[in-house]
Amino acid sequence: MIVLGIDTAIRCTGYGAVDFRSLNDIRILDCGVISNSAKLPHSECLRRLAGGVRQLISQFKPEALSLEDAFCSRNIKTAMILSLARGAVITIAAEASVPVYVYSPKTAKRAATGNGSASKEQVAALISSMLGINIKDIPLDATDALALAMCHGQVLIRPELKELLPKPV
Amino acid sequence: MIVLGIDTAIRCTGYGAVDFRSLNDIRILDCGVISNSAKLPHSECLRRLAGGVRQLISQFKPEALSLEDAFCSRNIKTAMILSLARGAVITIAAEASVPVYVYSPKTAKRAATGNGSASKEQVAALISSMLGINIKDIPLDATDALALAMCHGQVLIRPELKELLPKPV
């Protein structure tokens, strides 16, 4: 079961594709970022983001997308720009019939690493250890995306985390 | 010059396509709504909205999309859900290389009808009069979309409104 985690943003979207073969065989397939120059207008950022996500779905054929819930302490303008990007990502997933699950940052960290208040660096260290890869192979902006993928996969394969499974959006 | 106005919402999106042939020859091509049942999840609403907008762009080949600015007095949750829908619409327009212009409700009404504080009913009456159609032929939810299309078209063809032209998003 392949899960694609996406840490959505208008300028720098992290992604991580993880293959959950069993509780003891979890493999990272890819991770990275879709970057948009600060000079680009929003429409062009959304076009590039949508194209990138469409390509990742086509390449990895994930069973689900895992996104971060956006109802945090951001200001309304930032939150609305972030929502534009989330709208693009959810649209592309829906057009490809891939269900989208949304987790709070805390739940994502807790399910992915066992620690809901872990720092980005701790998450990266734990995930690289779980996946048996070098921490330096994870771009920092992809850490949250990998945590989101790890979160949804763990929620599905670990019976004790089953209660964390949300409805798809 | 054809302009497609879209009054975006997750549940009921109005649209209006208007052909600006000259100052004295402005024709309505179509108007209506893309409705989503309250039972549908957001992802399905976005998929249907994206598909509908893609079809309208393909049918009318507009030179521009005209949307309403969303930074109003809505609460943050509503604003973020609305932004998901706007993200879907802007993405589809960008993928079709159609520029998107965003107007405040007040500017849209002012440019479309000469009165920035006109009611929905007044806007419908003025627009149907300008387009030489029966007011009953305009679905109420399409009124704002037609006003947005009329706004952008008038801003482009009326020299005195030139200063209202925003940068595309």
SSE arrangement:
Two copies of one chain form a homodimer.
Chain A: E1 2-7, E2 12-22, E3 25-35, H1 42-60, E4 64-68, H2 76-95, E5 100-103, H3 105-113, H4 120-131, H5 143-157
Parallel strand pairs in A: 1-4, 4-5
Antiparallel strand pairs in A: 1-2, 2-3
Q: CATH superfamily of chain A, please?
A: Ribonuclease H-like superfamily/Ribonuclease H
Along the chain, the helix and strand elements of chain A come as EEEHEHEHHH
The CATH topology annotation of chain A reads as Nucleotidyltransferase, domain 5
- Domain count of chain A: the total is 1
Measured as a percent range, the helix fraction of chain A is: 40-55%
The counted number of beta strands of chain A is 5
Count every helix of chain A, treating DSSP H or I runs of 4 or more residues as helices: 5
Rounded to the nearest angstrom, the radius of gyration of chain A is 15 Å
Structure commentary:
Two copies of one chain form a homodimer. Chain A has 169 residues and is α/β, with parallel strands linked by helices. Chain A has a single domain (2-164), classed as 2-Layer Sandwich (Nucleotidyltransferase, domain 5), CATH 3.30.420. Chain A has helices spanning 42-60, 76-95, 105-113, 120-131, 143-157; strands spanning 2-7, 12-22, 25-35, 64-68, 100-103. Chain A has a five-stranded mixed beta sheet, with helices on both faces. The radius of gyration of chain A is 15 Å and the shape is globular. At the A-B interface, helix 1 and helix 2 of A face helix 1 and helix 2 of B.
